Amino acid sequence: MIEVIKGSKACARCNYCKVCPVYTVESWESSSPRGKLYAIKSLVEKEINIDARTVKELFKCTTCGICEVICQVEIPLVKLWEELREFLNNNGYVLPVHKKLKERTFREWNPYGESREKRIEWLNEINIKPSSSELLYFAGCTSSYRVQNLAKNTVELFSKVDVKFSYAGINEFCCGSPFLRTGQMDIAQKLFLKNYKIWKEMDVRRIVTSCAGCYRTIAKDYPRIAEKLGYNFDFEVLHTVQLLDEIIDDVNLSKINIKATYHDPCHLGRHMGVYEEPRRVIKKLGIELVEMERNRDNAFCCGAGGGVRSQFKELAFEIGKLRVKEALDTDTKYLISCCPFCELHLSQSLKYFDEKISVLDLVEVVNKKVEDL
Description:
- The protein has 373 residues and is an alpha/beta fold.
- It has helices spanning 2-10, 21-26, 33-44, 52-58, 66-70, 77-90, 96-108, 121-124, 141-145, 148-160, 177-181, 185-201, 212-229, 240-247, 276-284, 308-311, 313-328, 340-349, 362-369; strands spanning 135-138, 206-209, 236-239, 259-262, 288-289, 334-337, 358-361.
- Strands 5-4-6-7 form a four-stranded parallel β-sheet, sandwiched between helices. The chain has a three-stranded parallel β-sheet with strand order 1-2-3.
- Strand 4, helix 15 and strand 5 (288-289) form a beta-alpha-beta unit.
């Protein structure tokens, strides 16, 4: 709780953090980062007592990180929110849906509660076999169970450009991102251990994933967890778009004469600083990129992260609708991103509009335009 207490006292109450997507929708002081920090300070100083309503408000945060970007006194707010949630969980304050996610994951090792056998259905539908390469493809839960087209397009593309890859199959487990963001560190550590041991058994050296949340977790959180538990995390971790950026100049591509806009996933952009790689790949395809008003480190969240979509669905879609509106305002017909969770949520948020825009992952776009070598 050290960062939480320090942060609550450091807040200058300037309200620059009103850019928060939750506050943008709800407009309540308690919804803003400033309001949350004031509540924490009041709890620490015992001016108020913790109750169910306060806990609920403290969890209304997508952990998108825009507050940290804008903070004038440079409070490490993403770390603060996650540390706060871990403290709340450890003291018995768990939101009902987040608890169910944990229970489902302990049964089937994914937050969707789907069977482990179903995790590999997407691979069984295409005629591509993984090898014993030191490069591991980590599909992630959302690509495996909900946006399977992304996983298919990824391995099809790997096959076309002769990227050898291994795949853990039913021995791939949730990376733990939903639980790190909601403060449930116990199961996050169990998931780390299960994945880590499988990767070591497979003699993996590099890990590539198409999910922004998985990438952030494996690249940034796993080394921290490994150190805490006494393990040596010596893997190189890449997002698929970084691998594409490495090889795109050597790939035969047919140009696409379209206009498109790009959504920066929070975990890929603000959390990990990956902004230019997807834009370079988009431009290599010949696509005319039309930026949304808010982009790169100022990009607006899709609304799904931090456990908000699971616990506060209506709020998540109100945020999602605002982002879709920004995309529609670019007057393009394609919204490209690099995260299956963003793709899923933005596609569903689009249903509230009469206007239409195709929501695609960048891997899918590249795969359709790569000529077999």
